[in-house]
Amino acid sequence: MIDHSAVNILVLDDEPFMLKVIAHILGRLGFSQVATASDGQRALDLLGSATPPGLILCDLNMPEMDGIEFIRKLVEQGYHGGLILVSGEDARLLQTTAKLARAHRIDLLGQLHKPFSPGQLAELISGWHPCEAATPAAAATAPGAGELRRAIADGELELHYQPKVALASGRVTGVEALVRWQHPHLGLLMPDRFIGMAEEHGVIDALTRWVFDAALAQARRWADDGLDLRIAVNVSMANLHCIGFLDFMTDAAAKHGIAPHKIILEVTESRLMQDVRAPLEILGRLRLRRFRLSIDDFGTGHSSFAQLRDIPFDELKIERGFVRGAAGNPTLRAIYEASLGLARQLGLEVVAEGIEDQQDWDFVRDSGCDLAQGYFIAWPMPAAAFAGWVVDWDARAERRQ
Ligand code: C2E
Ligand code: MG
Ligand code: MG
């Protein structure tokens, strides 16, 4: 919880009545330091004042400087506080603006559609922790390629595993291996902090080879303990430029005694890929050797129709941005259902990513999707926690029957 009297809040809206209403609600929620501004310029002036805002509630539709322009100016001024978007505009425009704010690394608490209740505002603020790491300072400490090579050699990488579950039966069918870097000074680093860098600097091969070997060794241990799982590993298109990779995969599967049809390669496109000949050959031949190919994050960036046309996938993973909350959002729902229908027509198994609550689960199960993955089922966990989790999960599934 935050100390209400310690946060300076600024409300920006061109309608004086709205300013009064919102300030009143904030007062009732216990916030005593509330300033208001009826246009963007005045709000920006307050950023330089003795008591700059730590949280801004911002309207979108304003006559002189609109909310979107205001956000850009906030970023230019180095604003590090929180932001809530408040608007009567349609939900898609609010969502576009929210996306833009996040892309600028603004600490966006969420969006409120006018008219909103005091409870909705209280809920957004109650989950907020001011000064979270979404500031540029966190990005400034990005580790380099040499350091990553050393880390692989020194055993600083580790894998966490997230289950994939069959929606119809609730049964655990497999796990996805997700890499983390236990950095000696920066703590546990998530892949978004180093995969792009590894691709750009030619370290992705060494990284993927380490991941593949470690994941298959773990799959072997689980199989020996009687856990029959498919193991999924993420493979960047940047891995597929050299034919040697094909033999590496095949040899590793043989070494650990894991049949290729138990191994899923989740393919994501690299920004750097130019020549598609080697990737097409490698993926085609991996499929001939019965490895399962999955198109990851379907619907984003390059993970799209052209890949579906060119590569013989077995599985399609619908990107979590089209799944999470789709039950209550007509736009997401349309994209989700189109992706599912497309996968069905192509005969692919479908995984819905990003199942975060019961509503997401019910929605994807009722849609006829095959598999689900997400925090509602389980967060990615160390291998040691997995067997215990399966026992708990199966017990919960039995109670649900
Ligand atoms: P991905 O393959 O799409 O993996 C799923 C990501 O979504 C994981 O993030 C996972 O922790 C997160 N996630 C799972 N369930 C939920 C949920 O319900 N809600 C939300 N908001 N997120 C959820 P993580 O581990 O940070 O990995 C991010 C990406 O990094 C992965 O996306 C994958 O593209 C890449 N990556 C991870 N490990 C490797 C690897 O070994 N090699 C390569 N090349 N890429 C990897
Ligand atoms: Mg994946
Ligand atoms: Mg994904």
Characterize the structure shown.
The chain starts with 8 loop residues before the first strand and ends with a helix. The strands form 2 sheets. Strands 6-7-9-10-11-12-13-14 form an 8-stranded mixed barrel, surrounded by 5 helices. The chain is an alpha/beta fold and 401 residues long. 42% of the residues lie in helices and 21% in strands. The structure holds ligand C2E and magnesium ion (MG) (2 copies). One magnesium ion (MG) binds next to loops.
Strand order of the largest sheet: 6-7-9-10-11-12-13-14
Give a count of the beta strands, DSSP E runs of length 2 or more.
15
Give the helix tally.
Answer: 15
Mean pLDDT: 90
Residue runs with pLDDT of under 50 for 5 or more positions: 132-140
Rg is: 24 Å
Strand content: 15-25%
Q: Could you spell the SSE succession in H and E letters?
A: EHEHEHEHEHHHEEEHHEHEHEHEHEHEEH
Question: What structural class results from the helix and strand content?
Answer: alpha/beta
The largest β sheet comes out as: 8 strands, mixed, barrel
Q: Which compounds are bound in this model? A: ligand C2E, magnesium ion
Distance between the termini: 38 Å
